[in-house]
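Handoff note, outgoing to incoming analyst
You'll be picking up this chain. Sequence as last confirmed:
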Amino acid sequence: MRIIIINGSPRLNGFTAAILHGMEEALRGKNADVEYYDLSGLSISQCQGCCGCYTTGHCHINDDAEMLSERIAKADGVILGSPTYASNVSGYMKTFIDRGHFVIEQLLKDKYCVSVATGENYGNKDAAKVLNKLIQYSGGRLVKSLAVKATFNGFDKNDAAFLGKKTADHLYSVISGAKKYPGQAIYHAIIFSLGIKPFVLKKGNQYKGVTDKWKEVGIL
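Most recent structure output, in case you need it:
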C-alpha cells in the first residue's frame, strides 16, 4: 500500500503538519509505504498557462511538480493538507494544484483520498471544499475530509497527532477492504461524461497527452 502525504503549509511544525505527521506515523506503523512531502521545500514554478501539457502529457517545466505528479500516479492513497489563507488553500497548495495533472488528466482516478484543512476561523470549510472538489473532479474517492479549527499556535500536538492517527486508521481500513463509493462514482461519472470528456475529445490532437493518459488508466 503506497500513500502520498502532501503538506501545503509553509510551517513545518504547524497544526496542519502535526495532523499529517500523525497520519504518517500511524500508516508507517501498519507497514504502509508512505512518502511525505512539504511543498515549501520543493521547487515548483507557477503554471504559465500554455496548455502544452495537454498535448504532450507533461509540463515543459521539469521541476518537482512533475516528480510529485508521477509519485501520485503510482499511489493507492493521497492525503492533501493545507492551512486556510483568505478562505482558500495556501499559495503553495494552489501552485501545485495549477501545475499538477489533476482534473483534466484525471490524476486521482480510483485513488483513496483524504483532505485536511486547518484554520482559526470559519474559512477552513471553504478551503476543505477546494480540496474536496479537486479530489472528486479528478476521479478520486473522498474517504474523509477534516476541516479543523485551532487557535494560532495554541493547538495541542498530541490532540492533532491523535486526530491524524484516527483518520489514518480509517483510510488504511478502507484501502485494505477496497471499499466502493457508489454515490461518488455516479457524481464523478456525470461530471466527467457531460463536462470533461466531450470537451477534451472535441480538442482532438491538441489534447493528445490527455487522452493518452486516459488510456493508461482505463478511461478510454
